[in-house]
Design brief:
This protein is mostly beta strands and 76 residues long. 13% of the residues lie in helices and 37% in strands. β2 and β3 form a beta hairpin.
Length: 76
């Protein structure tokens, strides 16, 4: 397993707990979307009223199966 470097300033990232959601692309909760936005993740669609949140491309994801998490990475 590869850990994300704590001093990586070339990327912004946000990790969610999957909790049984489809790892191919789980729908973010409102709280997750707010936290991801605060962490610097950019969105092409961010609508708190409808609950529609789409992360802007390009982005990458890392799934940690043993932790049941998905990390979203974007260039800073």
């Amino acid at each position: 397993m590869t850990a994300l470097p704590a001093n990586d300033t070339s990327h912004v990232y946000y990790t969610i707990q999957l909790n049984g959601r489809d790892p191919s692309w789980p729908q973010l909760t409102l709280d997750e979307a707010r936290e991801a936005l605060a962490a610097g993740i950019r969105f092409s669609i961010y609508d708190e009223h409808t609950g529609e949140f789409n992360v802007s491309i390009p982005y990458s994801t890392i799934r940690y199966v043993d932790r049941d998490t998905l990390t979203i990475l974007q260039e800073a």
